[in-house]
Amino acid sequence: MRERTEYPAGVPCWVDTAQPDPEAAAAFYGGLFGWEFDDRTPAGMPGRYLVAEIRGRSVAAIASQVAGTAPAPAWSTYVAVDSADDAVERAVAAGGSVLMDPADVSDAGRVAVIADSDGATIGLWQAKAVIGAHLVNEPGTWNFSELNTRDPEGAAAFYGAVFGWETVTVDIPEGVFSMFRMPGYGDHLEALDPGLRERQAADGAPEGFEDTVAWLLPMTEGRHPEGTPPHWSITFAVDDADAAAERAERLGGTVLMPPFDAPWVRMTVLRDPQGAVFTASKYTPPS
Questions:
Q1: For 23-78, how does the pLDDT look when each residue is reduced to its tens digit (9 = 90+)?
Q2: pLDDT tens per residue across span 193-202
Q3: Superfamily for 1-287?
Q4: What are the sequence ranges of the domains in the chain?
């Protein structure tokens, strides 16, 4: 995938995690993914904001956890919007709530944080000087975000109203999957990476997959312990899921789900030393 220079409105564009000890988190993720870090803490902001880079291009960030926020570190997803203020209004009208009012981040952009109608938290990013991640979908970078919810129908209505997403359920031999799609996003990707649709079709991707912006995962007792709140999770691409699991353990992380095969991927679920959970996934197209 070529370097990103813009994100259409309605497309997830950035991920970060707030950690009690950002320097220790940087050591873990640097060792796991080969990230280098640039301290881009805005003037007057408490704590630190360390932007992770590969080949000098931004891929994610690690922030200091602010006192009074959620006690358990987690990864957050941000969606590109034309106007953070307008998106917040749509979210409230659709039954969501505002966790952080729109605010300017120097000349980088304007940010807000909302909770959907089921309580899952997601960020909004109105880009100015900073678009979000420059590199995605290659080893060591963010691959996908997934909504884990107990109310799929409500989620479909909420995210459709706020971002214009369509919800599509695909039935393939390996199982039934639900996707959030942003109509027209595939045209943007095809212009950025000619031949993308043809390659995806050759690998057996369902029709319209190029418009997919996120996964929709119904929460079940088997996959989520009782009391787990609805949430967004994220997946990073790796070149070897088994090696990533071994490396995470050596660096002080925990393997929650050992590497296993799923449609088109081999993946493992990991927890970093301070508690943030994420998935590491190797793309394995059918032969």
A1: 999 999 999 999 999 998 877 777 889 999 999 999 999 999 976 665 689 999 99
A2: 898 888 888 8
A3: 2,3-Dihydroxybiphenyl 1,2-Dioxygenase, domain 1 (3.10.180.10)
A4: 1-287
The b-or-e profile of 182-215 (16+ CB within 10 A means b, else e) is: beebbebbeeeeeebbeebeeeebeebbbbbbbb
Q: Is 240 exposed, middle or buried (0-12, 13-18, 19+ CB in 10 A)?
A: middle
Q: In this structure, are residues 210 and 189 in contact, taking their beta carbons and an 8 Å threshold?
A: yes
**CA 216/CA 232 separation, integer angstroms:** 9
